[in-house]
């Protein structure tokens, strides 16, 4: 657990930079904005204490918020996603549970499992984020399309990121 | 007591979640009050430094078009300054002391960060309080409306873009002066909605919409856009769709307009309200 810390710290910084300086500038027709930073919550180890999960999610969200002048928006959505994570993990757990010494990543549990896992959590996050951003239910359908399109993009990016890990390391 | 502690330990995850979530939502709801906070100010400074670097890189790509635009603006301004007109020394003229009477002060600034795909879009400028920017100043680009300065730190400032669901701009139809309030529609960065124009007003597609000058922020006559569509709303008002003349996707150089009489206007308005 402790020896993973430096790597997660680097991942955190890289994801925030990627999000703030590259992805926030992508503006396809004002509809699509992928939020790759949620990858960090997805790949935290299974044994992460639940309270730490929430604290980390808040730290991540508020960092993104401070860079994009949206105080409270990303932190609320990310904390919500972190809250849902243990329950989602429980629901989709493989028959004989999660092995120790593994991480919730594609190379340990395969594309199928990882896709299920990330799609559920990313959709939850994006739903929460986009509706809290609009703060009203008028134009429900437009927001819905934004959620779906942006989710697809985030999911694709998350999947691509999974192939960046070298096979030999854990 | 033991069982209570046990119970709390068991649901600590839920409690912590609710606490953090409520705190986040509290931040979100009070978003606009935090722009002045010290902490936010220092992060703005920090983020601003990074944005400047990335923007420097990006601006190279648009150098050509930007130069073209500046040349056109220069040309237009050269055409209206005094020296291009024939002097008329023969007639008496009343001298207008421009410095004493100056009402608006322009400061050029560059955009270092901009968004158009949120519901509350922000722009970051590379100038701040040290260069004379204050909250509540107007931001325009080549005579087109951009937004209102919200928070300033020493060297950077954030601007609420016109593309913000909560920002309302007092505006009027140029040709006949009927005024209403303009508000972004939240969907398209190219259009906004103008409300409160009465039905008896004569309007046509293509009419120019400008700022009314009734607020102490924007001077009169800043161009907003053109009427692209209108319909009768229930009641006695039009709902007018305005095509914005500012291209928010390509903003680069802007001017910040400070109203030198702003405090005086607000003071007398507040006094009148109090007296009522």
Tags for this entry?
heterodimer, A: 170 residues, mainly alpha, Arp2/3 complex 21 kDa subunit ARPC3, 6 helices, 0% strand, globular, B: 276 residues, alpha+beta, Thrombin, subunit H, 2 domains, six-stranded antiparallel barrel
Describe the structure.
The complex is a heterodimer of chains A (170) and B (276). Chain A has 170 residues and is mainly alpha-helical. Chain A has one domain (2-162): Arp2/3 complex 21 kDa subunit ARPC3. Chain A is 66% helix and 0% strand. Chain A has six helices and no strands. Chain A has helices at 5-22, 39-42, 50-68, 73-91, 106-134, 140-162. In chain A, helix 5 runs antiparallel to helix 6. The model of chain A has no long low-confidence stretch (mean pLDDT 85). Chain B has 276 residues and is α+β, with helices and mostly antiparallel strands. Chain B is built from six helices and twelve strands. Chain B has helices at residues 2-10, 12-29, 38-59, 63-80, 98-101, 262-275; strands at 104-114, 120-125, 138-141, 144-152, 157-164, 168-173, 179-184, 191-198, 208-211, 223-232, 237-244, 253-259. The longest helix of chain B has 22 residues, at 38-59. Chains A and B meet through helix 3, helix 4 and helix 5 of A and helix 2, helix 3 and strand 2 of B.
Task: Summarize the topology.
The complex is a heterodimer of chains A (170) and B (276).
Chain A: H1 5-22, H2 39-42, H3 50-68, H4 73-91, H5 106-134, H6 140-162
Chain B: H1 2-10, H2 12-29, H3 38-59, H4 63-80, H5 98-101, E1 104-114, E2 120-125, E3 138-141, E4 144-152, E5 157-164, E6 168-173, E7 179-184, E8 191-198, E9 208-211, E10 223-232, E11 237-244, E12 253-259, H6 262-275
Antiparallel strand pairs in B: 1-2, 1-12, 2-5, 3-4, 3-12, 4-5, 6-7, 6-9, 7-8, 8-11, 9-10, 10-11
